[in-house]
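Changelog-linked ticket: zinc ion example.
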Amino acid sequence: MHKIIFLDRDGTINKDDGYTNKVGDYKLLPNTIKGLKKLQSQKFKLIIVTNQSGIGRGYYTEDQMHEFNNHLLNKLKQENIDIKEVLFCPHTPEDNCNCRKPKTKLIESYFTPDFDKNNSYVIGDRASDIELANNAGIKSVLVTTGSSENDPESNSNPTFIAEDLLDAANKIQNA
Ligand SMILES: [Mg+2]
Ligand SMILES: [Zn+2]
């Protein structure tokens, strides 16, 4: 059995300036390295799941997103943190695709018989991340590191609320 952390990217791992896409704007949030190391030491596989509607809106290209992702993954690799894959949706909400979070399409290929669903989590800073977890029937952590649009109206009901990824890792460890 393997357990997985599905990680949001912007506002969860790196600072979210709104449609973040330039390597020059890359900045990790506090305690990201410590938190990811701690999750990795708990034997979680780490997968990024990110909505990148800036591509569909024409704000940046898919190549620019890959460039940013490669930079991020290389920086994490230098800390011995291994992100297995980056799953992304390039569409706008108006496209009505079936991969934009909170839809579960992007992560469904990981729902194999040896997937430890009861001990896997989505971690993110938005209601759409928590709703992704709810739709997939897995647990979730809302981190309060995101820049904006934490929707107080939302009844997304995360399993835990954490102040950053280290706090999230601690809460998951003590669960
Ligand atoms: Mg986010
Ligand atoms: Zn999509």
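Closing comment: Example verified and attached. Residues 8, 10-12, 16, 124-126, 146 surround magnesium ion (ligand 1) (CB under 6 Å). The CA atoms of residues 162 and 168 lie 5 Å apart.
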